[in-house]
Amino acid sequence: MRIEQDLKLGFKDVMIRPKRSTLKSRSQVSLEREYTFLHSNMKWTGVPIMAANMDTVGTFEMAKKLAEKTLFTAVHKHYSVAEWTTFLNETSAELKNSIAVSTGTGKEDSKKLKEIFDLSEDLKFICIDVANGYSEHFVKFVKKTREQYPDKVIIAGNVVTGEMVEELLIAGADIIKVGIGPGSVCTTRVKTGVGYPQLSAIIECADAAHGLGGQIISDGGCAIPGDVAKAFGAGADFVMLGGMLAGHDESGGDVIEVKGEKFKRFYGMSSSTAMDKHAGGVAEYRASEGKTVQVPYRGPVENTLQDILGGIRSTCTYVGAGRLKELTKRTTFIRVAEQENTVYSK
Ligand code: 5GP
């Protein structure tokens, strides 16, 4: 047994220090980024915020809406090939450039992935998503997928430490998904005791990835726009959102009415709700179970997007970053005492 004494921080443990700025208004801030990916050599330009590959978030409807603002969607893996066929028939090349096809690492998963990629040459992103990105089997699957799809962009995860980011990048991934346990409907930390505070995970994994020319996605734990800004400030190239995009018209599922108030169901992809729905198909998705919650129904996702993008633009003006690209360089985090967090949501 060994204890690491270094302090590891989550989003709530810090705030961003304001800095002198020449920007007059948040409208002067550009949130677009351009990336060239390590192995595929593909270029991508857009606002690097992603809908999570959960079946109440990463839907086709969400992808259409998010792509209008150049945001990205990791489409969940439970659509059938027939559903993909219909969707792709009515989809522009531009939209196809804003989505990833998600997959697990089983034989059936590989077969289905190929069937989907055979439908359209314009599909460019593969998201290989497993419970535990530390397994040897996972690294082998990433290698094999890279051999099979040399010019596609491969996203792989989830991990939380630099050495594993490097191993996956060397194995052929372009972008590494970072986060174990911070998700709003995730119970990994409760069930297993395993995890890593998300802000520190981003800082350490971004450093490892950028050293090799790769990118990272911060996945999970953002509950308010300020958290998204902190994730970018810490060095995330992309930020993936589940709970913040749940509860909208585009999230799928029915609106439930309780005592006159409207809700939508939101659940972890390894919760019993998800397992019932997908007939055992997701049992291996996450190391431990997820929760099922009811989130307030929030109508079209458009308003929420305005709120998130407006918040990050405003962060940029507070620290004098004219472009999202400059945010990390201009970020100084200050550690805050716990009681400060009571005013956190103001
Ligand atoms: P959120 O933005 O809601 O805080 O986190 C979303 C992320 O939680 C997802 O992208 C995924 O990585 C993670 N997640 C989704 N479902 C589950 C689950 O059932 N169990 C666990 N451990 N994590 C989950």
Q: Overview of this structure, please?
A:
With 346 residues, the chain is of the alpha/beta class. The protein has a single domain, classed as Aldolase class I (TIM Barrel, Alpha-Beta Barrel). Helices cover 33% and strands 19% of the residues. The protein has 12 helices and 15 strands. The chain has helices at residues 60-68, 81-89, 93-96, 107-117, 136-148, 162-171, 188-192, 198-212, 225-234, 272-277, 301-319, 327-330, and strands spanning 14-16, 33-36, 43-46, 49-51, 72-75, 99-103, 125-129, 153-159, 175-178, 215-219, 238-241, 255-258, 261-267, 292-296, 333-335. The chain has an 8-stranded parallel barrel, surrounded by 6 helices. Helix 6 packs across helix 8 (198-212). It is globular and about 55 Å long. The termini are far apart. It binds guanosine-5'-monophosphate (5GP). Guanosine-5'-monophosphate binds at residues 52, 54, 158, 179, 183-186, 188, 219-222, 240-243, 268-271, 286, 288, 290.
